[in-house]
Structures are given as structure tokens and as C-alpha cells.
Design a protein that fits this description.
Length: about 140
């Protein structure tokens, strides 16, 4: 799998054939490639959710951005960078619910350099934890 070209980080609504995933996508669902422990994983976004604090297991998602002050008040994401999950199905602590954590990268950051939670934590980049949770 390492020799394959990485799929576009843009939303995918076509069949997917990458690594161990062969998905025909008959209903044209939006599917996102993500990093989890340095491995490409796939997710289908379902949107924001409300949870009971302390009663629901929530995993962490790291979103690499240049700043929190992009267009329309949205964070300025690093183009070409997948977001990073701290776990995948089967891992201890896995949850299909993700708390957004923004990783502030410098302007000379090379997309796809960060590929795991460990990479993020060892980078020295500022991480901004939010209360935004999605499925």
C-alpha cells in the first residue's frame, strides 16, 4: 500500500480502490480518506452530534490548519492534508464520534507530513481542543 499514490483528500463520491478497501459506492455516499496511526482509513461523515459529557466515549480528530481565522470565520485548513483520527475500529478507545482538535501548522508545513496522533503530539505545534463533536 505504501507505494500507492494517496487519494485526494477532497470528498470522494465515486468507487474507491485503495489498499485494503474495494468499495463500489453504489449510492454515491461522500467518503473521506483519513489518517489513523499512519494508515489510510475511510469514513462517511454524518454531521454534528450532541452527547452527554462523561457518558459517551469520544475519540479525537486532529485537523491541520494554518490559522483559526480563515474565510468566513472558519479555520484555514492546510490544502492536501487528511485529518487524523486517534484510533480506528478495533483499536482500544475507538469511537465513531470525533472531537475536533485544530493543529496550527506553520506556512511552510508540507501536507501529509502528520499522519498519526503521535506525529501531532511530537510536532510541537499548538493544538486547540474544541467542544465540536461529529459522527
Amino acid at each position: 500500500m505504501a507505494s500507492q499514490i494517496l487519494p485526494s483528500p477532497d470528498d470522494v463520491a465515486t468507487p474507491i480502490h485503495y489498499g485494503n478497501l474495494d468499495y463500489s459506492n453504489p449510492h454515491k455516499q461522500v467518503v473521506h480518506p483519513r489518517w489513523a496511526g499512519g494508515e489510510v482509513v475511510w469514513s462517511i461523515p454524518c454531521g454534528p452530534v450532541a452527547t452527554a459529557p462523561g457518558e459517551t466515549n469520544i475519540a479525537d480528530e486532529y485537523i491541520v490548519v494554518y490559522s483559526m481565522d480563515g474565510d468566513k470565520g472558519e479555520p484555514e485548513k492546510v490544502e492536501g492534508q487528511y485529518t487524523i483520527y486517534d484510533s480506528k475500529p478495533g483499536d482500544p478507545g475507538y469511537s465513531p464520534l470525533w472531537r475536533h482538535n485544530y493543529v496550527i501548522a506553520p506556512r511552510d508545513y508540507q501536507p501529509q507530513t502528520l499522519r498519526s496522533k503521535d506525529d501531532v503530539l511530537q510536532s510541537g505545534y499548538q493544538v486547540i481542543r474544541t467542544e465540536e463533536i461529529t459522527n
